[in-house]
Specification:
314 residues; mainly alpha; Cytochrome Bc1 Complex, Chain D, domain 2; three-stranded antiparallel β-sheet; globular; binds heme C; metal-binding; Cyt_c-like_dom; iron
Length: 314
């Protein structure tokens, strides 16, 4: 008994020491800086390039769904583009995160950032201060042509003053930030340009490089890593007081939500937009994709490996 007490006491001391050390280390590692290359991207003033950027921002890349704090549902009905002045709150286990003001305002927006700094943020997950960002925006393999178009359009946004709160990391978030959060960058080489057509290849590019369908429709583990079959259904969105919504299976498997849907059914469904009010899917943006873009997505979804619906383990 005496011996046990002694062991317990020492274990207690050691544990306490580890906790104190970890807490101190976590605190000193809250402002880590990372290196990443500055991409050779220069905004253009060509009206065709700007129009292409506008289409990307408000449709498949769905920047407006995250970078606006306005009622994007009513604006979508009215056909008004939301202002990209940021401030939308994303609250989860790691803390509260706020999308930034990406209008041209010099103090509260991105007016002072260079094209290369903005491109570095989006390609390499390192913000203008050199801090790693949580991977909200997996645009790491967007083509250089599309990145140029997106930034060219952002440069035309009129400056809107809107101070966005700083991110608030939870204790868990702080520990992960100190030891685990690393900037996510491109896989392989960034394509210069990708031919826009109705093929599965272009659909693959939209789904995986721009629209990020897999981010919700593939099952992910606690740290965000992909653990389910690609596009075979994702993690449930559980919100108090609201029906839980689960991103369904989109593969060509009999269990898939879209099994048996014709190309026209798929296009018509996307065009209907948001039918469930609290759905997290950025329907308002996606419904603005062209028929050709939606056809490419449909062709790609038909070509992926059919898989049974992923089920989350609780
Ligand atoms: C899923 C939500 C989401 C989408 C979609 C999204 N963003 Fe973001 N964005 C965020 C969040 C959240 C932050 C803040 C991240 C942080 O501070 O760690 C952010 C930060 C940024 C920043 C950094 C600004 C700065 O002050 O350094 C830029 C630039 C940016 N986004 C541009 C875009 C563009 C352009 C698009 C569309 C092509 C886009 N975002 C789409 C959520 C999103
Ligand atoms: C931010 C998360 C998110 C993203 C990104 C997302 N989805 Fe979804 N999706 C959902 C959720 C949640 C549902 C279930 C609720 C609903 O139907 O709106 C859903 C439902 C669907 C449905 C079934 C609709 C129905 O009426 O049965 C289809 C089809 C679909 N998504 C396709 C896509 C495609 C294609 C993409 C990429 C272009 C995509 N989703 C991106 C979350 C997402």
């Amino acid at each position: 008994m005496k011996r046990f007490k002694k062991i317990a006491k020492w274990t207690g001391f050691i544990l306490l020491f580890i906790i104190v050390a970890l807490t101190a280390l976590t605190a000193t590692r809250q402002d880590l800086r990372f290196e990443a290359p500055y991409p050779n991207i220069k905004a253009s003033t060509d009206s065709t390039v700007i129009a292409q950027g506008k289409h990307l921002v408000y449709s498949m890349a769905h920047c407006a769904d995250c970078h606006s704090n306005q009622n994007t549902d009513s604006l979508a009905q009215l056909g008004i583009e939301p202002t990209l002045s940021g401030g939308r709150k994303f609250a989860f286990e790691l803390g509260n995160f706020y999308s930034r003001n990406i209008t041209a305002d010099e103090e509260t927006g991105i007016g002072k950032l260079t094209d290369a700094e903005i491109a570095r943020t989006l390609y390499y997950g390192v913000n203008s201060k050199g801090q790693a960002m949580i991977d909200f925006m997996p645009f790491h393999n967007v083509s250089e042509e599309h990145m140029t178009a997106i930034i060219s359009y952002l440069r035309t946004l009129k400056p809107v003053k809107n101070v966005v709160p700083e991110n608030e990391y939870s204790t868990l978030g702080k520990v992960l930030k100190a030891f685990l959060v690393k900037p996510v960058g491109p896989k392989g080489t960034i394509p210069k340009t990708v031919t826009p057509d109705t093929t599965a290849a272009y659909g693959n590019y939209i789904v995986n490089n721009v629209a990020n369908c897999a981010g919700c429709h593939t099952l992910r583990g606690p740290t965000g890593d992909y653990i389910g079959e690609p596009l075979a259904g994702g993690n449930a969105f559980v919100e108090p007081g609201l029906d839980t919504l689960t991103p369904p299976n989109l593969t060509p498997h009999p269990e898939s939500r879209i099994y048996g849907w014709s190309k026209q059914n798929f296009i018509d469904r996307v065009r209907m937009g948001k039918l469930i009010k609290h759905s997290h899917m950025p329907w308002n943006s996606y419904k603005k994709m062209t028929d050709d873009e939606l056809t490419a997505i449909y062709n790609y979804l038909q070509s992926v490996k059919p898989a049974k619906t992923s089920v989350e383990k609780k």
